[in-house]
Amino acid sequence: MRIADRPAFAGSGLDRAARLRGDAEGLVAMLQGGRVLPVWRGKPLCHGDRLGWVGAGHPVLAGAEPAVFLGLDGDAPCFAADISDWAPEAGAEAVASGFFDPTVQTHPALPPDMGFAELRGMMLLLSLRDAELAATAKALVQWHRSHRFCSACGAASVPAEAGWQRRCPACAAQHFPRTDPVVIMLVTRGNRALVGRSPGWPEGMFSCLAGFIEPGETVEAAVRREVQEETGITIGRVEYRTSQPWPFPASLMIGCHAWAETESITLDPAELDDALWITREEMVAVMAGLHPRVKPARPGAIAHALIANWLADIRD
Asked: How far apart are CA 205 and CA 195, in angstroms?
């Protein structure tokens, strides 16, 4: 079975050029001749429906953290720099709290048509290449900001290998960017699919069930455990479908199709506010935005792809 709807952030084929990460002198030259993506508190700089690249000496990068090397876009070296310590001027649009931040912050050193935007809102506007670069940049700069100290001895660590490592000068430990594996599964039983909603989600928002893989656990075991814990439903067969980098903050979503052997729902209220079975015919209305209770999964998210694939029933 093949996937009908490609998730965002996946599939551009970026040359990550790991072979160049240890060439400190070469990277300095590439940075001076390349382009840099500023990232402010998890928001990449955007210019319309594109990323907002600047040169290495641009004033917006004053006080930035050391640039990290993202890879080569064709022959163009691409970097990202964390400028989260910059504070917007009084009167600038404030960051909104909640599930999604629609605000855009502008910087006095940049044109007014460039601003820092929430990546969830930009993921369908960006090209495949820009989306992969943005997801990589966001995950890397946030990892550096949250892992400044060695987990082995507690000393301050320093960036290395063009931003793809942190090294401890005290005990010589090496630390690598963290990616958290998450299973997300379309659970079906006959002509129906299971959807649920987490506490705090916007009204009407339902999605496929999902959860982190635990140490010592296979993907299939994680699917079965998460569904059982959250809804009390027993899962039999599990098949992999597709995956998606999800930089909120740094997950890899592993999309599966799971076949339920039972259907009675017993909610874990700490995990889910609600869960329900939706027939294939109802799901068509959901995806069209016509269902009275359930809103469609966000386009670009892996849940949307899993549901679209199930509705299309595409087979090789």
From this structure: 10
Please return the burial class of 125, using the count of CB atoms within 10 Å of its CB with bins 0-12, 13-18 and 19+: middle
Dihedral in degrees, nearest 10, Cα atoms 273, 276, 281, 285: -10
Token readout for 64 is 């930035």
CA nearest 31: which of 69, 72, 75?
69
Determine the Cα–Cα distance for residues 141 and 166; give it in Å rounded to an integer: 12
The 10s digit of each residue's pLDDT in 18-38 is 999 999 999 999 999 999 999
Q: What is the pTM of this model?
A: 0.91
Break the chain into its structural domains and give their ranges.
18-145, 147-178, 180-312
What's the gap between Cα 102 and its chain centre?
A: 17
Going by their DSSP bridges, the two strands 180-189 and 158-160 should be labelled as unpaired
Q: Is 17 left (phi over 0), alpha (psi -120 to 50) or beta?
A: left
For the cut 60, the answer to whether the pLDDT of residue 296 exceeds it is: yes
Q: What are the CA-CA distances from residue 92 to residues 104, 114, 174, 217, 274 (Å)? A: 9, 14, 40, 46, 38
Three-state SS for 268?
coil
- Residue 36 tokens, joined: 């840099």
Strands 192-197 and 235-246 come out as unpaired
Helix axes 302-312, 280-287, angle to 10 degrees: 130
**Residue found by looking up tokens 């430990």 in the block:** 173
In CATH terms, the fold of domain 180-312 is: Nucleoside Triphosphate Pyrophosphohydrolase (3.90.79)
